[in-house]
Each structure stands twice: as structure tokens, then as C-alpha cells.
Amino acid sequence: MGKVHVDGHDAGAVTLYALSTCMWCKKTRDLLSKLGVSYDYVYVDLTSGAERAELIDELRKFNPDLTFPTLVANGRVIIGFKEKEIMSALGAL
Fold first, then answer.
1. Which whole-number Å values give the CA distances from 43 to 36, 50, 84, 91, in the listed order?
2. What is the maximal distance between C-alpha atoms in the chain?
3. How far is residue 15's CA from residue 40's CA, in Å, rounded to a whole number?
4. At 71, phi and psi to the nearest 5?
5. For residues 93 and 89, what is the distance between their CA atoms, to the nearest angstrom?
6. What is the pLDDT of residues 31-82, one digit of tens each?
7. Is domain 4-82 classified as CATH 3.40.228.10?
8. Whether the predicted model's global pTM rises above the 0.85 cut
9. What are φ and ψ of residue 78, in 5° steps?
10. Domain map of the chain by residue range?
């Protein structure tokens, strides 16, 4: 599946690492959509082989514990669904 791009207004580089079955990951995507920002996301559990290995290596740089959701917004790493932190990182507060 790989990374998927969602169009919206430019809030900088925003990438969400998520699991397709994770309620908090869904809440994070819903918040990003509500804010109308452009972002990329990937459901790590729906990848396999070399693609998954590459994503895990990429994610480990930001979150060595490999927990979800992990949001990287303009270099700022937010682990878990933290609405106020996400909004602040995206300039929505």
C-alpha cells in the first residue's frame, strides 16, 4: 500500500505512521482531516517485505518504541493521540 497523500492546505511536512486497526490512529486522521491540512499517512500493518522493513527503519528514527500513532509534523514528533499538541504543531492553536 505504501504512503498515501491527503490533499489540504500546506502546514509543512506532516507524516502519520499508523495501524489500520488502531482507534487512536483513526482519531488522529480524523483530526488532521478536520483541520484540513495536507499530510501523508501509512498503515504500517498493511505493508510487507522490504517496504515494511524500510518503514520500520524510518519510524524507529522518530519513535524507537514503534508505538502508534506516531505523527511527524515539521520535525516535531508526537506519539499517541494528543489533540492539543497536534494542533499546536500544525499552527491550529
1. 20, 15, 23, 25
2. 39
3. 5
4. -110, 130
5. 9
6. 999 999 999 999 999 999 999 999 999 999 999 999 999 999 988 999 999 9
7. no
8. yes
9. -125, 120
10. 4-82
Write the Ramachandran bin of 48: left for phi over 0, alpha for psi from -120 to 50, otherwise beta.
beta
The C-alpha cell that represents 86 in the structure block: 497536534
What is the rounded (10 degree) CA torsion for 90, 17, 1, 51? 130
- The amino acid present at 83, given as its one-letter code, is E
The backbone torsions φ and ψ at residue 63, rounded to the nearest 5 degrees and listed phi first, read: -145, 90
Residues 6 or more apart whose CB falls under 8 angstroms from that of 31 comprise 81, 83, 86, 87
Unique residue bearing C-alpha cell 508526537: 78
* DSSP assignment letter at 91: T
pLDDT tens digits, residue range 7-42? Answer: 999 988 999 999 999 999 999 999 999 999 999 999
Three-state SS string over 40-82 comes to: EEEEHHHCCHHHHHHHHHHHHHHCCCCCCCEEEECCEEEECCC
